[in-house]
Amino acid sequence: MKIMRAVIAAAAASALLAGCVQGEDAPAQQAGGGDAVTLRLDYAYYNPASLVLRDQKWLETELAAKKVTVTWQLSAGSNKANEALRAEAIDVGSTAGVAALVARANGAPIKTIDVFSQPEWAAIVVPKGSPITSVAGLKGRKVAATKGTDPYFFLLQALDEAGLKPGDVTVTNLQHADGRTALERGDVDAWAGLDPLMATSELEAGSKLIYRNVGFNSYGVLNAREAFLTEHPDLAQAVVNAYERARQWIKDNPDQAVALYAREAKISEAVATKVLTERTRLDIDPVPGEAQRAVFEKILPVLVADANVKTEEAARTALDSLFAPTFASAS
After folding, report:
1. What is the pLDDT of residues 106-150, one digit of tens each?
2. What is the pLDDT of residues 67-120, one digit of tens each?
3. Is 43 within 8 Å of 53 (Cβ atoms)?
4. In whole angstroms, what is the distance from residue 136 CA to residue 160 CA?
5. What is the pLDDT at residue 71?
6. Residue 273: which residues within 8 A CB-CB, separation 6 or more?
7. Which residues contact 249 (CB under 8 A, 6 or more apart)?
8. Backbone angles phi, psi at 190, to 5 degrees
């Protein structure tokens, strides 16, 4: 009996410990049986509006009365934001539009609920002094890119337009910051760059953008887990509303926006100015729909050919079910 009681006690302790560990990621319980909700968002240096939201704490202030806690997690790229959504580590994440499409086509239960910018955040970059002057010149070369992100999809489209296949270059899969480092060290011949890292390399290291095409950049979008949208549509709406406020704040306070962006992203104000004023269009329709679909339709064959999606059917099914426009329509 003593042995049995010891086993039961050990099992109970183990269950309690497991519950505590699980509780680090699961919503906490309020006294009285209610749920204390945590709204988990990402912020990213390629998403200036997220930096404004995190700094101004509008959501924290608005939702405090509802006993909602807001937490923030840094996304180093669209691929990382999608990984966090898939792992249920965040509820809403910011990615490039095509990155969201690919994630959904490959089984991630996410919906695009808002368009926060039309950026020209990706281009093909070569180091200072490089003899390469065109995409065609990349044949047989080593190119750094972060798979699963807009710069990688930009590279695929640029190669296709130049009559090259992905296999005509050697893609070195590096996270964006590491890609910049590899370029400037001469470890790769080119880089599918992402701002603000790209603008920093351009201004501070003399790197050159040899191919630009805003039409190959697939918008900045907010994606939410479907379960979150079902359980907390009010919080999803609050996030979209706050993003609209952040976009307007940036337009109304350009100097403050540049200073905040430079501080938060740890970049110079010259870089922040270039990204915000030259390569980020905020005056757009925030409702996801036909504008994004038009971009996706162009790149879809390239995604299929490069096996970024399992089948064309899966990609088209994802395209038909990706957008949840009601939140941005209501904001």
Report:
1. 999 999 999 999 999 999 999 999 999 999 999 999 999 999 999
2. 999 999 999 999 999 999 999 999 999 999 999 999 999 999 999 999 999 999
3. yes
4. 10
5. 98
6. 258
7. 52, 56, 257
8. -155, 170
Tell me the per-residue pLDDT of 154-174, one tens digit each, with 9 for 90 and over. 999 999 999 999 999 999 999
Question: What is the dihedral angle through the alpha carbons of 145, 148, 153, 156, rounded to the nearest 10 degrees?
Answer: 70
Closest listed residue to residue 192, CA positions, set 142, 242, 227, 231? 142
- Between the alpha carbon of residue 199 and those of residues 204, 262, 286, the distances in Å are 8, 12, 25
3-state secondary structure the chain: CHHHHHHHHHHHHHHHHHHHHHHCCCCEECCCCCEECEEEEEEECCEHHHHHHHHHCHHHHHHHHHCCEEEEEECCCHHHHHHHHHCCCCCEEEEEHHHHHHHHHCCCCEEEEEEEEEECCEEEEECCCCCCCCHHHHCCCEEEECCCCHHHHHHHHHHHHCCCCHHHCEEEECCHHHHHHHHHHCCCCEEEEECCHHHHHHHHHCCEEEECCHHHCCCEEEEEEHHHHHHCHHHHHHHHHHHHHHHHHHHHCHHHHHHHHHHHHCCCHHHHHHHHHHCEECCCCCCCCHHHHHHHHHHHHHHHHCCCCCCHHHHHHHHHHCECCHHHHHC
pLDDT exceeds 60 at position 234? yes
CB 152 within 8 A of CB 124: no
Amino acid letter for position 240: V
How far, in Å, CA of 308 to CA of 175, rounded? 17
CB count within 10 Å of CB 231 equals: 15
Whether the full predicted model's pTM is greater than 0.70, yes or no, is: yes
The identity of residue 281, as a single letter, is R
